[in-house]
Every structure is written in structure tokens, then in C-alpha cells.
Amino acid sequence: MSLHQNEVPVDETVVRSLLKRQRPEWAELPLSPAGAGTDNTMYRLGDDLLVRLPRTADTASAVRKEQEWLPRLAPLLTCPIPEPVHAGAPTDAFPLAWSVYRWIDGAEPGPDTVRDWAAFGTDLAAMVREFHGIDLMGAVRAGDLSWYRGGSLRACDEWIGARFDACRATVGSELDVEALERLWRAALTLPEPSGPHVWLHGDLKPTNLLVREGRLSAVIDFGALSVGFPDAEHAPLWDLPPEARHAYRNSLDLDDLTWARARAWAIAVGVSGISYYWHTYPAFVAECRGRLQAILADAAR
After folding, report:
1. Percent of the chain beyond pLDDT 90?
2. b/e sequence 234-260, b meaning 16+ C-beta within 10 Å
3. Which of 33, 51, 89, 242 is the most buried (most CB within 10 A)?
4. What mean pLDDT is reported for the chain?
5. pLDDT of 31
6. What does the pLDDT read at residue 275?
7. Which residues belong to any copy of the Aminoglycoside phosphotransferase domain (predicted)?
8. CATH 3.30.200.20-classified regions of the chain
């Protein structure tokens, strides 16, 4: 399924050709689809490997970023993260950088895999606290490590503002877009964050978290890895049940200003995701709708 106008097509034949040229010892291993996100398509390779291919040239830089930084960050984290084992080079069949990682067993957090959501929220908060506490090792908010979610809400208002109209036209009365826009506008009047920059995963939504025996067991997909203010890191908490959200906030002792800015980032991602992916990625649209409904429910309380 193509999501972007400039998407590079990929299928199992393409993946086999890449492996035959660059890692022939893996070329005959079993290969099967292992999911796809907005930026990457993935295939499980044998029992122990995962092939990850960017959808567009814009997201290929994220592959190189993971190859550079994940081996340096992993030893400093208690929670497992992806381990790159091959840096794939572009070819005529696939003209972008790509990667092979160790396979990490686990399931997506959900009602069938997590029973104690408060404990899950506490686990996630512990991972975030540890990650944000890692020394930047000379990294700065520039180039591939600069992303809008680690910066200023106000700097994004021009393009996010237009997304509210597009979302309103798309969902009609299914969501109270006016209330969401009021929350966004109110956040724009808040003081800007002033603390130090930290490492940011950038997209801690449930599809990028793995659980085993009901507990957080790994964090995956560091394509949005960046350096910046931590507020937006907390935005995906509205994708989780209230018990997880409250335990996470309490564990990190997040103040009202930080929480309001985090909520604004969650709104921004939700309304832009609905308008952009409405016709191409219904599963992601459903995620965005669920996030926005949770925000409205919280605001009503």
C-alpha cells in the first residue's frame, strides 16, 4: 500500500535481490511481511532478523541515524532497543539506504497483552526518564537530529492550523474539532519550554512498544530520534488507557505546563494524521481518532 507520492515500491522480490547482492548468507532464509508504518516497510528474515526499508528518500536519513546512534545508546539503557546488524546500501532495485536488525520478540500493548496498565505506565516512564538522562555525547539539535516535535509549538502553528480545517472537513461531526483547536490555541499562549535539550525517541506510540508477560519489554523504531525539549515525548500517552497515562505522569512528576504542551503536540499529530492519511492508511487514522477522543474525554473531566 502506497502512502506517499514519492514512495519507492518494495516487495519480497526486491528484498531478496538486496540480500543476494549484499548478504548472500541470508538470501535463502524465510522471508515474510512484518508490518509497515508511515515511514518504513518491514520483513521478518528467518527467526532472528528484521529487514527495514524506508518508504521515501526523506525517511532514508532516519535509517542512517539509527545505524549511527543506536549502538551507542543501547548500552546505556535498561530497556532493549533495536540492534542494527547490517547497513544496507542503495541499489538499482532499491535506491535508498536500508537496514537489518536483530529480531526482538514481543507483542504490541493492548487489552489482550497488558492487564495492569498502571504498572505499564510506570515502566514506560522509567524508560523515558533513563533515556532523557543520557548524555548527549556531543549531539545537538541540528540536521537529522532536529525534528519539529522537539521544538516550539508556535513555530508549527502555520501548518498545524491548516490541518484543523482539513480534519474538520474530513470527519464532520465525529470529533469536536473546534474544542481541539481551542486547546491548541490555548497552548500557544503558554510559556515556551526552557529546560535543557535531551534525547527524544519522538514517537512512543503503542505500535513502537513491545510487551512480554504484560510488562514493557522493548522500545522500537527510533526513526524519529532527535534532540530537543521533552514535552512532545509525552504526547502518545493519550493512545494508552487513563490508568497508564496517570501513572506515567505521576511517576515523572510532570507539571501542568508540560502536560498542556504535551497534549497540544498530541492534538497536532492527531489532526494532521487524519487529514493526510484519510484515504490511504485507515488503521493510522483510527489511532489518531482514538487519541483525539481521549484528549476530549480528559478535557471534559
Report:
1. 84
2. bbbbbbbbbebbbbbbebbebeeebbb
3. 51
4. 94
5. 97
6. 87
7. 32-265
8. 12-102
pLDDT of residue 229: 97
For 95, 107, 169, 211, 281, the CA distances from 101, given in Å and listed in that order, are 19, 17, 41, 18, 25
Closest CA to 220 of 244, 233, 234, 201: 201
Is 90 exceeded by the pLDDT of residue 35? no
- For residue 209, the cross-strand partners are 219
Tell me, letter by letter, the H, E, C secondary structure of the chain: CCCCCCCCCCCHHHHHHHHHHHCHHHCCCCEEEEEECCCEEEEEECCCEEEEEECCHHHHHHHHHHHHHHHHHHHHCCCCCCCEEEEECCCCCCCCCEEEEECCCCECCCCCCCCCHHHHHHHHHHHHHHHHCCCCCCCCCCHHHCCHHHCCCHHHHHHHHHHHHHHHHHHHHHCCHHHHHHHHHHHHCCCCCCCCCEEECCCCCHHHEEEECCEEEEECCCCCCEEECCHHHHHHHHHCCHHHHHHHHHHHCCCHHHHHHHHHHHHHHHHHHHHHHCCCCHHHHHHHHHHHHHHHHHHHC
For domain 12-102, give the fold: Phosphorylase Kinase; domain 1 (3.30.200)
Given this structure, which CATH class describes domain 117-300?
alpha beta
Length, in residues, of the chain:
301
User: pLDDT > 70: what percent of the chain?
Assistant: 100
Whether 58 and 91 have beta carbons less than 8 Å apart is answered as no
Using the Cα atoms of residue 274, residue 220, residue 104 and residue 249 in order, give the sign of their dihedral: negative
